[in-house]
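sry for the spam today, last one i promise. C-alpha cells for design, 426 residues
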C-alpha cells in the first residue's frame, strides 16, 4: 500500500520546493529532454554513485517515480527539501522512513569542505515525511571514486572515508539500536566503559588496553601497538576484544594473522581465555571462527583469518590451503600489480567493527592494504618492528611502546597457555 505522503514526492517535490519556488536541475532537465550530449563530470559521478548504491542493496529512483515502499532501502535522486534547504542529490529511505542524504560531487572534488552542506540537507526534511530521527543521522559525500561518511549518532561525529555505501540493513540496525536505547552507537558506548579488571595482566598489557580504548574514544580510527615477541599480544587482544563485545556492543571483530599456524595458535588463546569478571570461557559466551573457507560465520563474534584468506573472500576466489601456510608478505602474488578489490555484497563494508592485524608491518602494502581499507572498521596494528611506512599507515598513533624484559619472568601472574589449556580440560 502506498502511503498518503507519496503525493508529496510525486507532486510538490517533482522540481518544486514546498513553498512554490521553481528549481530546475541540469541533469534532470537533460534527462527529460533526452538531449544527445556527452555526460558531464557531475553526471559521470552520479552514474558511479548509482552503481555503488545498487551494489550495496539500495533501489535508486527518480523523484517523479519515487515509491519509498518498493524495498528496504530507497535512494531518491534530486530530492527537493524544505524552504531554504535546496535539493539533496540523494535522499535515503530505510523501511519507508528518511534516514540519510548523499551530496554528490564530480570526481576530483575535495569532499571535506562539503560536510556542513550535507548536514544542512539532513536537517531540511519536510515535516510531512516520516523520519525517526531529525536531523537525519547518516550523511555521505561522494564523487563515486571517493566517499566520506558521517554518523551523527556518534558523539563528536566526524566524517571518515569509506570504501562504499553501507547496506540498508546496517542503517536500519543503527536506527533501531538508537531508538531502543539512545546512546547505543559503538563510539558512544565506548565513553562509558567500566574500569579494566587488571588482575592477571602485565603492566604493558594494561597500558595497551587503556591506550587503545582511549584512542577509540577520541575517534582515532587507526592505532599501533609495538610489543616485543613474547610480550603477550594474543592475551592482550583477547581481553580487548572481550571488553569491546560485552561493553561497547561490537558486532564482530577480526583478528588478522600472517600465517595459518598463527591462526590456530590464536584460536587456542581464545578457547583458553577466561573472562576476568566471572571466569567463564570466552567460547562459552561468544562464537569464535577460524576462517578456513570463503565464508564468514554469521553468528561469530570473533573471526580469525589470514589476510590472504580475506583477500580471496573479497575477490570471490578460492584459496589454495598451502598458501595460508606461507607468510602473506612472501607470496609471489605481491610481486605483481595488485588486482583491485571491488565491492562484494557477500562481505559488506560493515562486516567488522574492529580489525586487529598481527605482524602489521607485513600487511600494509600492495594487495593487503586494500583488504585493510575495504572495511568500515577501526584498524589496530601489532608489531615488534614498526617501520616508517607502518607508522605512517597508522597515522603516527603509537598507543604503546613496550620493551618487555622482566615481565617474561616467573613473576607474571598469568598462567602459560599450556597451563590454561590444562585448566580448561580439567
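last one done:
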Amino acid at each position: 500500500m502506498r502511503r498518503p505522503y507519496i503525493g508529496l514526492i510525486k507532486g510538490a517535490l517533482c522540481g518544486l520546493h514546498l513553498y512554490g519556488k521553481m528549481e530546475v536541475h541540469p541533469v534532470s532537465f537533460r534527462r527529460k529532454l533526452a538531449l544527445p550530449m556527452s555526460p558531464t563530470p557531475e553526471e559521470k559521478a552520479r552514474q558511479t554513485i548509482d552503481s555503488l548504491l545498487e551494489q550495496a542493496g539500495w533501489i535508486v529512483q527518480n523523484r517523479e517515480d519515487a515509491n519509498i515502499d518498493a524495498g528496504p532501502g530507497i535512494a531518491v535522486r534530486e530530492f527537493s527539501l524544505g524552504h531554504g534547504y535546496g535539493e539533496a542529490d540523494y535522499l535515503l529511505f530505510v523501511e519507508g522512513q528518511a534516514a540519510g542524504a548523499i551530496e554528490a560531487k564530480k570526481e576530483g572534488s575535495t569532499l571535506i569542505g562539503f560536510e556542513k552542506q550535507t548536514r544542512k540537507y539532513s536537517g531540511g526534511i519536510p515535516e510531512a515525511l516520516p523520519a525517526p530521527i531529525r536531523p537525519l543521522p547518516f550523511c555521505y559525500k561522494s564523487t563515486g571514486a571517493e566517499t566520506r561518511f558521517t554518523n551523527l549518532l556518534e558523539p563528536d561525529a566526524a566524517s571518515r572515508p569509506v570504501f562504499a555505501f553501507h547496506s540498508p540493513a546496517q542503517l536500519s540496525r543503527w536506527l533501531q539500536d538508537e531508538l531502543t536505547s539512545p546512546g547505543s552507537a559503538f563510539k558512544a558506548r565506548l565513553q562509558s566503559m567500566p574500569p579494566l579488571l587488571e588482575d592477571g595482566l602485565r603492566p604493558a598489557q594494561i597500558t595497551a588496553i587503556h591506550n587503545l580504548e582511549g584512542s577509540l574514544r577520541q575517534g582515532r580510527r587507526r592505532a599501533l601497538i609495538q610489543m616485543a615477541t613474547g610480550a603477550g599480544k594474543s592475551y592482550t587482544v583477547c581481553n580487548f576484544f572481550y571488553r569491546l563485545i560485552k561493553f561497547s556492543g561490537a558486532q564482530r571483530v577480526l583478528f588478522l594473522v600472517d600465517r595459518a599456524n598463527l591462526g590456530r595458535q590464536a584460536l587456542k588463546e581464545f578457547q583458553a581465555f577466561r573472562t576476568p569478571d566471572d571466569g567463564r570461557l570466552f567460547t562459552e559466551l561468544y562464537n569464535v571462527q577460524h576462517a578456513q573457507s570463503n565464508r564468514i560465520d554469521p553468528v561469530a563474534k570473533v573471526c580469525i583469518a589470514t589476510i590472504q584468506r580475506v583477500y580471496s573472500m573479497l575477490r570471490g576466489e578460492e584459496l589454495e590451503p598451502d598458501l595460508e601456510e606461507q607468510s602473506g608478505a612472501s607470496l609471489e602474488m605481491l610481486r605483481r600489480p595488485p588486482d583491485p578489490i571491488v565491492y562484494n555484497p557477500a562481505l559488506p563494508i560493515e562486516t567488522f567493527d574492529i580489525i586487529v592485524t598481527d605482524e602489521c608491518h607485513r600487511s600494509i602494502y600492495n594487495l593487503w592494504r586494500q583488504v585493510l581499507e575495504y572495511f568500515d572498521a577501526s584498524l589496530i596494528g601489532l608489531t615488534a618492528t614498526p617501520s616508517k611506512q607502518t607508522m605512517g599507515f597508522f597515522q603516527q598513533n603509537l598507543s604503546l611502546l613496550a620493551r618487555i624484559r622482566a615481565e617474561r619472568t616467573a613473576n607474571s601472574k598469568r598462567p602459560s597457555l599450556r597451563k590454561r589449556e590444562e585448566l580448561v580440560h580439567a
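The longest strand covers residues 73-80. ok im logging off now
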